[in-house]
Fold this protein.
Amino acid sequence: MCGIVAYIGEREAFPIIMKGLQRLEYRGYDSAGIALLNGDMTVYKKKGKVKELLDFARDKKTSGSIGMGHTRWATHGVPNDVNAHPHLSGDGRLSIIHNGIIENYNSLKAALVKLGHEFTSDTDTEVLIHLIEEAQRHDNLPIEEAVRVALTKVVGAYAIVVLDQDAPDRVVAARKGSPLVIGLGENEFFMASDASPLVEYTKEVIYLNDEEIAVIKRNGDLQIKTIDNKIQSPFIEKIDLKIERLEKGDFDSFMLKEIFEQPRTIQDCMRGRLSSKEGWVKVGGLEQVVDRVSAAQRFIIAACGTSWHAGLIGEYLFEELARIPVEVEYASELRYRNPIINETDVIIALSQSGETADTLAALETAKEKKALIYGVVNVVGSSIARVTDSGSYIHAGPEIGVASTKAFTGQVTLLTLMAIHLGYSKGTIPRSYYLQLLEELEQIPHKIEKILAKDKQIEAIASEIKDATNALYLGRGYNFPVALEGALKLKEISYIHAEGYPAAEMKHGPIALIDENMPVIVIATNKSAYEKIFSNVQEVKARKGKVIAIVSEGDKEIKAIADYCIEIPDTDEPLTPLLSVIPLQLLSYHIAIMRGCNVDQPRNLAKSVTVE
Ligand code: G6P
């Protein structure tokens, strides 16, 4: 939800900022802008992708060694040149970039209008820079103090960077609720929404905390204060992020690269966490809190989007293997009802980005009620990772395609490890099954490779159904959340309306939609419910639906009646989602490409949703 990047140092800021914006484009891509301090305040803004801003600014004045840029996902005001960031103060001497929402902008704006301020955009952000201007003008304050005073009046979330034409030796940055990381180079500093724009320049970073303001000067001075004016000691951390992980390599899109990376990312997630030969599984974060977790009366999994689907699989895993009751909640719902949560509950927050505003807020609610908070997160150092009591990283590496793929399988892998660990330590699964699951889990990366090798076959099936306007995904048990995830993938990137359903529920509604134009994707690998799914497939066929079935290798019965079959390797039922989701990812990828859609940056979506 908007990406911000800024630079102060000795180099030309423009190319650094532009490259940084391209790295952050996954956060929003409806318009982009840049501000450079070069004696004047030079600002360029353009509707559309960062590339359009780059083309627009290329032959213009782009000098300056202080600057900042923004790539937007619109909240207040349509995407156009005027609403794009940076926004300027009334006198044009101050500029701001902002990720977040100023919730009380209307009342602030009304007060500022009374004082004579005029606004040109529809954004909440422009109100903030006028507020800073007002604070500066009123008491003749240095810019950092004006920012601090203004922020005391603001309700909402922000990561901001502010430039002042009259203070060309400094950059002021602040955050509350939206991420901001400062990179420390030699005689230079970088600021960004995440570490990806910084990695080629430095490995040393400071993650700004909520309600902190940083003043960074060209001479190397860096001071961090809280909004209530207390000086903080900066905590410098080392990041371990390789640039190749941020590039597409030989792939046409990040999404395809990330789908194909899954054998390795799952391996990375399992590394050091299990050995079937030696018969152990350990999940570091879990061990720190294992007594409280094992004694938990209930797990509540809070998440959004694809992470919520991974959470549903977690419910099946924890209940079956560890006999722990689980509720899976949309974080946005959990935070606004008055949930019954108590000290004996464990809240597991699932989040790829670790920044999703609703998930973060749900954790705050659970924290107040003294539950143990456990994070399962991909982005190292992210906000959720830092507020939890304990947790585990999934180690999927940067996921840049907006539609989540490898983070989903990473989350499911981690939840599987946790469930096996807890099941065995609680004695709810026998040792023989425990060892069998570990052995099978170690085979998963290899089995995924076998599925990826069927890419051409899946592409051919995609070409048969690419013109559909609706699609239905059906699954039972562990494959029901996979059906939801398959439908979401198709919706997100190809704009075909798709629904996921428990296969048996089809009779209670969706069956009315089935005709010869309706592709029905059935995930039919379950051993326990095979006969039932077989009947569901027949019900679809009886109504002339087009069945695409995901079946286990060697399947005969469903294969005989389905229109198309994708065979996947067999595994133990709790591990099935790690395999059955792969063909669905590829299917939606190919359909979207055939329909001419941008799979990495689908319309209206953003990867990291830092607003409500
Ligand atoms: C957005 C993304 C999804 C993601 C969801 C939750 O909608 O487009 O891919 O699943 O947010 O994000 P999180 O980072 O918390 O997993």
